[in-house]
Amino acid sequence: MNLIKLKATKNDDGRTCFKYIIKILNNVPVSRIEKLFRKKDVRVNDVRISEKNYEIKENDRIWIYGLEDSYKIADHIEPQVNFGIIFEDENILVIDKPINIAVHGEPDCLDFQVLAYLKYEKVDSFKPSHIGRLDKSTSGIILYAKNYFTLVQMNEKTSNFEKYYVMKSDFPYEKEHVIFYSKFDNRTKRYKLSDKPTLGEKMETIFFTQGNKKYARIITGKKHQIRITLQHLGYPIKGDRRYGGDYGKRVFLHSNKLVFHKLSNELEYLNGTMFVSNEKW
């Protein structure tokens, strides 16, 4: 009988057994993995289990029967690396992303570039992952977690971080704190905004001016939040033709500052750390 023998690492600790196997057997259909549990073809520490929510612990021995030919040992990603590094240590990688690079979903996307830069090889259920995203047309700071513990805590605490963007817009105010609610219209393929909470997801943004530069601090961080909000206010970002802007060499939106707050345990040392990327236009 075919048998896959695995041993959980620190990066696997805390995942459910079901999610662990999905990550490890990343070319096996989920329906087939579900069948493993129904047939009790998964053994953890010499005990056959059917409980998908069993929580994996470091050094657990996981044996899986009947899938050896389907087991994908590693991901081999070798795109050209085309980004700047602002900061890196054993837990995080802070990147300065150029314009016109997608974060994921394309052959040369940032996710694949990061895996190539880190010389990633699949040894457990974790893969270095981005925390938050930037639009393909937006440049600047984006954060990656280099281990599972960091990924979980950063995603839990991201609403406490300060995230600033610099932009080109005719926005006329010294400071404006705006809250709208958005809903995607499948017919028009556009977002609708309203000040009524019943519409949909909350979009909260603080816009302000310092010197001759326009900035935005996002509080909620929804998809295209700054771009949609400025279009709704009548001051679209320069070059953002999708959301009402004029023609330009690029969308003039840049993620320029990130500050960490309220991190704990092994990540507490990062609290108050500020990362800055100056716009290049």
Write the topology of this structure.
Elements: E1 3-7, H1 17-24, H2 30-38, E2 42-44, E3 47-49, E4 61-65, E5 84-88, E6 92-97, H3 110-117, E7 129-131, E8 139-145, H4 148-157, E9 162-167, E10 175-185, E11 190-194, E12 201-210, E13 213-218, H5 225-233, E14 253-259, E15 274-276
Parallel strand pairs: 8-14
Antiparallel strand pairs: 1-4, 2-3, 2-4, 5-6, 6-8, 7-8, 9-13, 9-14, 10-11, 10-12, 12-13, 14-15
Q: Number of helical segments? A: 5
Strand content: 25-35%
* Residues in helix, %: 10-25%
In one word, what is the shape? elongated
- Which class best fits the helix and strand makeup? alpha+beta
Instruction: Please report the distance between the alpha carbons of the first and last residues.
Output: 61 Å
Low-confidence stretches: none
Reported for the largest beta sheet, the result is: 11 strands, mixed
User: Cα-atom Rg, whole angstroms?
Assistant: 22 Å
What is the arithmetic mean of pLDDT? 92
Count of DSSP E strands? 15
Q: Helix and strand string, N-terminal first?
A: EHHEEEEEHEEHEEEEEHEE
Textual characterization of the structure:
- This protein has 281 residues and is of the alpha+beta class.
- 16% of the residues lie in helices and 30% in strands.
- The protein contains five helices and 15 strands.
- It has helices at 17-24, 30-38, 110-117, 148-157, 225-233; strands at 3-7, 42-44, 47-49, 61-65, 84-88, 92-97, 129-131, 139-145, 162-167, 175-185, 190-194, 201-210, 213-218, 253-259, 274-276.
- The strands form two sheets. Strands 5, 6, 7, 8, 9, 10, 11, 12, 13, 14 and 15 form an eleven-stranded mixed β-sheet that branches. Strands 1-4-2-3 form a four-stranded antiparallel β-sheet, with no helix packed on it.
- Strand 7 and strand 8 (139-145) form a beta hairpin.
- The longest helix is centred in the middle third of the chain and has 10 residues, at 148-157.
- It is elongated and about 65 Å long.
- The relative contact order is 0.13.
